[in-house]
Amino acid sequence: EANLKSLGLDRIPLVNLRRADTGPGLRPEGDQVVDLDDQLAVMTALRDEGKIGAIGLSSVTLDGLRRALPAGIACVQNAYSLVARDDEDMLRLCRAEGIAWVPFFPLGGAFAGLAKVVDEPAAIAAAQALNVTPAQVGLAWLLHHAPNVLLIPGTADAEHLRGNIDAAAISFDDTTLATLDAVPSRAGDIVL
Ligand SMILES: NC(=O)c1ccc[n+]([C@@H]2O[C@H](COP(=O)([O-])OP(=O)(O)OC[C@H]3O[C@@H](n4cnc5c(N)ncnc54)[C@H](OP(=O)(O)O)[C@@H]3O)[C@@H](O)[C@H]2O)c1
Question: pLDDT tier at 189 (50, 70, 90 boundaries)?
């Protein structure tokens, strides 16, 4: 209700339910832990009332997503990048179910302790060969990796914004793509 008021909308097209069950960030403790089915019941009621258009999930586990599927999930927003690929199975499930995959920290995350795409040797080598930046390689790889990827890379830098948009036009040869595909996941389960 507060979001509708502050945004001046009758309906919010999509709302992500942040589960905080996985990935970098805080974890709910004690009475902060709420059953997923109870939360989905509220989200579904809001959708039935027309106050939200669609339901998304954020920082959700594979089991959580499977449980939520009957509610109708439009997108999943988990931490995922070239260097943080622990959720590969979930991405595949989303693809099979027609659910958009919206990676947060698509460049690995600005927080200390999180692996960064711009430090990844394979991204740096590909960037040099293509005369682009390692960040652009990381974003282009995400777009190549699956058709249901929807990118929202955050930036406060206009030059980065231009570069991030231009990343959509980058293509890789098979060898480069295979090298990038083989980059190991360094995500771990960091709780910030
Ligand atoms: N659901 C969740 O739990 C959750 C968690 C985190 C974020 N999000 C959302 O996900 C979206 C994207 O988040 P994000 O991780 O991209 O944002 P972010 O946390 O702001 O991090 C982006 C970082 O990448 C850097 N960056 C961006 N473009 C770059 C480039 N071309 N070259 C080098 N560095 C570059 C940015 O620095 P510069 O500013 O210097 O470019 C910034 O440090 C946002 O809408 C955010 O609200 C959701």
Answer: very low
